[in-house]
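User: My instructor asked us to take a sequence, write out its structure as tokens, and then describe one feature of it. I'm not sure where to start. Here is the sequence I was given:
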Amino acid sequence: MRLIRRFLGTLLWLSFVSTSSAQDRKAANPAAVPPNLLVLVHQEIQSGKTNERQKLVAAVSRACDRLDAPSFWIDLQSLTGNRETLTFDLFDSYEHLQEANSGWRQFYAAHSDLAQTQGQIDSLVSSERTIVALRRDDLSASVENIDLSEARFMRVMEVRLFPGHESDFAESMKLRSEARTNTKAEVPWVVYQAKQGAPSPTFLVFLPLSELKEIDDLLLQKEEILEESEGEGIADRLKQIAREAYASFESNLYVVHPETSHVPKEFAEGDPDFWRPRTAPEPKAEPKPDASNSKKKTNVKPLL
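Assistant: Let's start with the prediction itself. The structure tokens for your sequence are:
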């Protein structure tokens, strides 16, 4: 019951509260809209190996920025729940996913050094779970206003349903969306439905955040807005759906790691200083002394 109450509280203030985030202040980057198909890879890393994994993935990511890599991803690190990494792989369709899988085989065949590095990364993983999910615009709110290039944190809510209750979840999200419209709230969210990798009917609700302060704003305003805008009938129906339809609920917070992400150039243009910062130039080598004037000659290779 505690999980159900927490779920109700989380989604209620997700639905009704309006905040003035960076996403509201400027037009969203059309190249950074949530993808139609999402591949989520949860990985737990061996104890003491997180930094090593970070360095290896950063090397692969920067190489993929230079080369024609087959697909893109956003890399996140958990701030709550189990200590894990979450890769947020972006695809347009299942056909795009299939093409990427074939493309990666060719990519690694052409770049054996990166294939070896990827093997080192895989050896650091202690457990892994992959979910393939489709975007549900009918259950989302203002997806076109979500700019993932502005996201610095991601709140991920995973809702597992008892079999046969998908329509109840859809009803609850539509009730919240209607209430959001009536109260002119501006917080957008995007919902995905798991198609593979989940043991029961599962929906994922994503709330991109530009800063953690937005959570403070949500918590401070939750009770006041609920009292003003939430009718008893709707509240009772939402509680009933939670009791009867939800098998489990988990809400966690992640931080975005740009150095281990690989995003399209158009995506990165939303904030290039964050996604692809310029690296400091290497210091120039000091000129070598003329060997002919030296008392002792040394075998120094010329700088290339």
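For the description part of your assignment, you could build on this observation: The first helix runs from residue 2 to 16. Try explaining in your own words what that tells you about the chain.
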